[in-house]
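#onboarding

Welcome to the new folks! Below is a worked example of what a typical request in this channel looks like: someone posts a single protein sequence, and someone else replies with the predicted structure as tokens. Don't worry about understanding the tokens yet, we'll cover that in week two.

Example request:
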Amino acid sequence: YIPIIKNVGFGKACNIASKVSRAESIIFLNPDVNFNISNVENLKSMLNTLNQKDVGIIGPSCFDKNHQAVKSYFRFNRSSILTKPLQTLKKIGGISKYLAQIKFLKRQMQNLYYKDNELKDINYVDWLQGCFLVISRTFFQELGGFDERYFLYFEDTDLCRKTKKLKKKVILYNKFKIIHYGNFESKKSKGLINSLLSNKASRYHLISWIKYCIKWRNDLFLGINNNL
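Example response:
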């Protein structure tokens, strides 16, 4: 346990902890994750896959508290990244939820996901949700760690994009399974205005999305190196 006087944000806190620890492999693990539903052999197998020279980041298959599979792996689809805030807006309700029902926008949002029938034991994906990520220490240092400009949200997306830029693979390891009891704080308040005014997590989500779009604007708006 490494005490920090104030809340410095997810990415920066992980960077601080990584510099104190000494293990060859690092697991970034949310406190609301349970992985007792998998066995130790599958964890060992996943860690062995990390030793392959072309592998950058690995994550497990993710389930909710009802043991239903949830999406934790996504595409770097330009239009779906640009419309990603709508994923949150449709949950917080109010007038904003109707935007997510517009057929064109709904189609763009769906491009964020892979089809379930594409999944195998080992899957090469674009980016993984950050509730459980495995990465080697040397490669994490090569990436410069998490970008500390993101206080919360999109630091996992950014880390995976940097990984792909360096021609390393991001893997969903389907044989290792976790339960993520996600609180989804940014979606708890109802109504767009109310959510932005009263819900700090909603503001962080929007601010991080804006920062991400600015940082990767060449890929998103100009199409430069978009096909990673």
